[in-house]
Structure formats: structure tokens, C-alpha cells
């Protein structure tokens, strides 16, 4: 298929989403500006003290996580495909008097825009499903990591993406290792289901084996893979909130989130 056209359609959708997301309760921008961190328990525990470390945030949207790491003392760079997202991220960085930098590019082209290498590369929640092939993604991560540097991803579990959530109840429709693109067109966005914007999206499913093999094939060493029954975000139908403030399926049939930490030796 024409991947360039698919990326352009996805970018158009994300450009439209920025203004809606910035006003949404989901992103809580006003509270963020007052000092609330957008980072969740998984990534905070995994990366710990980032003071003085250089950090590259892949697919950063409008930069809240990037700027949260910056507030914690990291020297941050964020990249995203959406011009509107990068424009807002840059504006927030100035408004909050932080020192992050941002670049607008397809994440697969990061090395064409950024030559620096980093102590940490970070990406999270709804990122790899926009990529048809993870091998160039993993190679770029290897290129941008310093020796001894850490790559960390926390992401929604591939089993969760086997369902079509545009119908009620959700239908088990897509393959765990499906190679064909998944195209969806629907009104609204996960941050505001009542928005009138029309989301047109191409996505690709990636199983855990493919993800791990892409990273090791690029030369990274896997420290761990963890799977969790809980999600910090209430974005799938029918989830219930537990005592820790996280969301889980009532029947616990499959995990909702996974983490991978890897390093460049």
C-alpha cells in the first residue's frame, strides 16, 4: 500500500485532534500548567531519577510528557509528526520557562532531523500502532542511543488492538499478527467522544514477538518485558477503576499494558 499517503492521512487527523485534546479533561492542560505531571506510575518507576540525563521522547503529541520529564531535570527533545502538536509543545515550553526542544517529523525519520545521541529514549501509550514496520523504528532507536543508554516503552497490549471499538459491543476482528493495514473512520476522539471532528486513521497491529525481535535485531539488549492487567487510562469499553486508581477489565481475561526496557551495550 501507499504508506506515504497513509502517514499523511494520519497526520491530518492528529493535526485536527490537537485543539480538541488541549481543551479536554483527559489531558487536563490547566492543571498541567500549574504543575501536575502527566506521567504515570509505570514510566516513573521504570526510569526513576532522570536528573541531568538527555532524553528523546518519540511521538510526543503536544509535549506534556516531554515537559514533565523536563520538570524532573532531564534535558529533553520531543518529536511528533503533527505540526500543530509541535507548535503547541513549543509554546508550552516557552510559557512554562522550560528548556525542551521539539522537532516535527515522522518518527521513522528522526535520525534525519536529530543527530544527537541520548541517555534515554522514551515512548508511550498508543505509539507503535501507527507504524507499518518496526525494523526501521528499532534501528533509529539504536542509532540515537548512547552506549549504555536505555530505551523504554510502555504501550497498550497488542491483544487490546484486536478489537473493533467503533461498534458496540466491541468485536474481535483483527489479527494479533495482522500485516494488513487497519483503516477506521469515526466521529470524535479518545479524549472527547462528543467532538465533531472526523478521525481517519491507518494502523498496524504488532505482536510482542515482533516488537522484541525488532529491538534485538537492531542490536539492543532486553532488560525486561512486563505485562499488566491495569491501564492508567480509561480508554477501552467496560473498564472498572481499582483501588490503585488504575483501570482493568472486570473479568481480567487479558493484559491491557506492557512495558519493555532495553539498552544499548
From TrEMBL:
One of its GO terms (biological process) is methylation. Transmembrane segments: none annotated. It is an enzyme of class 2 (transferase). One of its GO terms (molecular function) is 2-polyprenyl-6-hydroxyphenol methylase activity. Keywords: Methyltransferase, Transferase. It holds the Pfam family Methyltransf_11. Its EC number is 2.1.1.222, 2.1.1.64. The keyword Transmembrane does not apply. Residues 57-153 form the Methyltransferase type domain. InterPro entries: Methyltransf_11, SAM-dependent_MTases_sf. This is Class I SAM-dependent methyltransferase. It comes from Jejudonia soesokkakensis. The lineage of its organism: Bacteria, Pseudomonadati, Bacteroidota, Flavobacteriia, Flavobacteriales.
